[in-house]
Amino acid sequence: MEKRRLGTSGIVVSEICMGTMTFGTQADQAESNAMMDYAWERGIDFFDTAEIYPVPPNKELAGLTEQWVGQWMKDKPRDGIIIASKVAGAAHGWFDPPVRNHKAALDRRHIRTALEGSLKRLGTDYIDLYQVHWPDPGMRPEDTIEVLDEFVREGKIRSFGLSNDTSYGVMKSLWTSERHGLKRIDTIQNNFSLNNRRFEDELAEVCRHERVSLLPYAPLAGGVLTGKYQKERWPAGARYSAYKAVGPRQAAMAERYVNDRSIASVAAFIRIAEEAGMDVTTLATAWSKQHDFVASTIIGASHRDQLQPSLAAAGKTLSPDVLRAIDRVAIDIPIPMG
User: Fold this and answer.
1) Residue 53 annotated to the active site
2) Which of 20, 31, 71, 109 has a 20 to 30 A CA-CA distance from 326?
3) Residues of the chain with pLDDT under 70
4) Concatenated DSSP letters of 24-57
5) Residue-range domains of the chain with CATH
6) Each residue's pLDDT tens digit, 185-198
7) How far apart are CA 49 and CA 129, in angstroms?
8) How many angstroms separate the CA atoms of 320 and 322, rounded?
9) Catalytic residue of the set 38, 53, 229, 243
10) What count of other Cβ atoms lies within 10 Å of the Cβ of residue 235?
11) Residue-wise over 68-100: b if at least 16 C-beta within 10 A, else e?
12) Distance, CA of 334 to CA of 119 (rounded, Å)
């Protein structure tokens, strides 16, 4: 398992990160522990969670994933595990998180409350990487960065980063830190996959020049790249099969991930993977981490058996011919997720 640095911090992590957002809904505690054990035994030392996990978030379950991760860590060497968590973004934005009585905000009061809650649930006195789950571009950025800077100085976090943000958000954050003499972000966690290459447009250039590391999530496009979704077959129990019936926002997300263009691109990627002698899941994960601006690719699963093809990407480098074939699909079917 290759090791990579997060931004310009002192934190070095495995090239694959174990995501935990399914722990508590799609996976019970026994299965969640089995997945963490499986990943740990195969060299993964980086685990990503959030105060609102599991998904889909609800008031009754919010924070349960952190509790389970904390319980699993009890017999592990704490300084050998890199833990990332997130504070929910503003409640008045695109999503209303079920925490703090639906009044979540990215100010000192709410961020301190969120961090203390995460530390307690995780059973630790520090979090290695603390991330803003989604931005509030209407706020003064220093009101968020100042408290994160304080956490670093207090030893409660080692580093911090952004998630679901834009080129403007990254540069505004970096400018604010430089102007006020505050710690700077080291990472950004955004959606990035064979079916969603938008990060390459501008954010990749920002990350390269500013030495900010991408932690890509959904490298399998929410499971779509496995080929399990077809035009007339949406498997029962799958995420987007369920999302179609949850509400308008989730239904729109399901349509974004699963549509005629995305299904066609997956068929092409499956052919490329077969010709290269690997599972399409391995292909997608290897492609994700084979970028100079990526530190660690976040994988997820609902049961242990799903992890093997993702972990098979560890140490794997796709050939120039395979990369060219992948790029041709992007030309023929541009931006399948819209």
Assistant:
1) yes
2) 20
3) 232, 237
4) TTTB-HHHHHHHHHHHHHTT--EEE--TT-SSS-
5) 3-189 (3.20.20.100)
6) 999 999 999 999 99
7) 10
8) 5
9) 53
10) 12
11) bbbebbeeeeeeebbbbbbbbbbbeeebebbbb
12) 42
